[in-house]
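Kindly review these tokens for lecture notes.

. . .
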Amino acid sequence: MQEKKKIPKSVASRLSLYLREISRLEDEGGDKVSSVELGELTGLTDAQVRKDLSYFGQFGTSGSGYEILKLKNILRDLLGKDNIWHIVLIGAGNIGSALLRYPGFKNQGFIIKEAFDIDQKKIGKCYGEVTVKDVRQINDIEKDRSIKIAIITVPVDSAQDVAEEVTRYGIICILNFSPVILKVDEGVTVRNIDLSNELENFSFILTSAKG
């Protein structure tokens, strides 16, 4: 098996899709799945599925497909599903508070351990075991080296400063909901969730369809 760092990011981003469908097939009593079936379930070609999974070893059998349980365990290991990952959230507004309320993260091994905001009306609010703190206390996360992921849901003009701040305290993965491209140091991974941009793409599709 190749080292994870040599795996293309495009491949890594599809692993969770494979795991989701494999887990569903297992729940339905399946024991094997072909690359064609897995491709249909994930919207990919069977060739893409075979190429992606070949990075992690030859565990499929030509003509009979992949053993579901074996493939599931391999994918879970690759995705670190048996680990607990701690998260800091900055920005407890509409999106941030919704994420704090969402129970699904914990089931997936992700725990929002700290939350910060600048608004005095939001500071002190409790969401389960998390109490929103004043953003001026953000250096508290430096004391907890288990926090490696940050979710940023702040206004555009604050996002870059927040990103620079959290990376100084050991954050290496950022999920950014602010509609701005963040500039971060090498070794820090950013995933952008721009809801407005996605809706504008829909608007383009719908407008084009009218023509």
In short: Strands lie at 32-33, 60-61, 65-67, 85-90, 110-117, 126-127, 130-134, 147-152, 173-176, 189-192. The CA atoms of residues 49 and 203 lie 31 Å apart.
